Amino acid sequence: MIRREAELFFNALRFFTRMPVPRWVGHSTDLLNHSARYFALVGWLVGLIGAAVFLVTGLALPLTLAIVLSMAATIRFTGAFHEDGFGDVCDGFGGGWDRIRILAIMKDSRIGAYGAIGLVLMLMAKFLALLEMGEELVPTALLVAHPLSRFASTSLIYALDYAREDQPDEIARAKPLAHRLSRGELTCAAVFGCAPLLLLTGLEAIGVVVLVFVVTWWAARYLRRRIGGYTGDCLGATQQLAELAIYLALNFSWLLSETEDPSNSI
């Protein structure tokens, strides 16, 4: 039992990062299917790496550079997995006029104007959102955002059908993840994704949960209407949108807290 759970976690780690895993870890479609319960736990590692790089580089570098290097570290650790999905979704939904065309564009590995512009804007928005928080708040934001945003994208596997189900296996690149999570697996993912909310105050946690729910609900509704479900790229795009939503929610809640703090009044 413990060995199987360890294999599931390491399969999730191998799929979503460039971190090496032990040689005894097996690889199969079944293991990868059920590893979804640990996607948010992988986010813990991503968040820890981002926070650690930020804290270390912040000792000698300006805040702006520390944030950039932190973002670069998480992108390097994950192989830009989710950013690539976001770019493909921008291209697909920006240039496609129907389901077949959208799926075909997202399958193309080349990046187009919509994808390039979307990625630049997404990275810029995340950078500015982190910058506006202030130096002492960035590590907490990273530790919360990476697990919770990955749970948000994982929930789409539970809620939606796989959009490429009717396409050949060689076209459906994300086919190994194309299944519905059980309630137990979704609960496990929720625990790992939501646990970092304990680092926040009540007001901050409520703001984050509400905005992430709205973004995830909108993404599910939009994807169901446009292509009938999700793809691997759609999961990556949802993670990116949810991550940004968390940073924005924390900016708003922290700003509200400062405004209501009597010590800040004249």
TrEMBL record:
Its main location: membrane. It is a multi-pass membrane protein. GO terms for cellular component: plasma membrane. InterPro entries: CobS. It catalyses: alpha-ribazole 5'-phosphate + adenosylcob(III)inamide-GDP = adenosylcob(III)alamin 5'-phosphate + GMP + H(+); alpha-ribazole + adenosylcob(III)inamide-GDP = adenosylcob(III)alamin + GMP + H(+). The chain crosses the membrane at residues 38-69, 111-131, 205-223. Its EC number is 2.7.8.26. GO terms for biological process: cobalamin biosynthetic process. PANTHER family: ADENOSYLCOBINAMIDE-GDP RIBAZOLETRANSFERASE. This is Adenosylcobinamide-GDP ribazoletransferase.
